[in-house]
Amino acid sequence: MSDQAKEAFEKASLGAENKAYNIIAKLDPEYFEKLKGLYVDGTFGREGALPRKIKELIMVGITCALNRPRGVRLHSQRALTLGASPREVLEAIEVAAIPGGMPGLWLGVETLEDVLQARGQKFE
User: Fold this and answer.
1) Is the Cβ–Cβ distance between 75 and 48 less than 8 Å?
2) 52-119 adopts what CATH topology?
3) How far apart are CA 42 and CA 67, in angstroms?
4) How far lies 30's CA from each of 10, 19, 36, 43, 46, in Å?
5) Closest residue by Cα to residue 109 from 84, 72, 71, 54
6) Residue spans per domain, the chain
7) CA gyration radius for the chain?
8) Distance between CA atoms of 111 and 73, rounded to whole angstroms?
9) In the prediction, which pLDDT does 42 show?
10) What's the pTM?
11) Each residue's pLDDT tens digit in the chain (124 positions)?
């Protein structure tokens, strides 16, 4: 595993830790290098038509709809770090309730409340 790939993942994570990437990097460095191509170079590190904040809000909605707690937490943290308001994160969660149902909504709002509390941030 190259230090460059690890640094790229750390930069793309915006401080929201996902220990799974460290484990993947240790267990299969070759795969980790390829994963960097998709995750960093192809998606979150790429300047495209959508700003990174919007990509993170999309991921909040998707992970709520799929009922993926780790993803909801990580992408909510990143969206807020990139300047999304708590209301914007909430609306991404609410939109996800259409395809994902009420459990995704519950997961999303409970996670948002926890993330805001941990950051010392209020819902305004």
Assistant:
1) no
2) AhpD-like (1.20.1290)
3) 24
4) 17, 18, 10, 19, 21
5) 72
6) 3-44, 52-119
7) 15
8) 6
9) 83
10) 0.86
11) 467 877 887 888 787 777 888 898 889 989 988 888 888 888 888 888 999 999 999 999 999 999 999 999 999 999 999 999 999 999 999 999 999 999 999 999 999 999 999 999 999 8
DSSP calls for the chain: --HHHHHHHHHHHTT---HHHHHHHHH-HHHHHHHHIIIIIIIITS--SS-HHHHHHHHHHHHHHTT-HHHHHHHHHHHHHTT--HHHHHHHHHHHHHHH-HHHHHHHHHHHHHHHHHHT----
C-alpha angle 4/9/10, rounded to 5°?
95
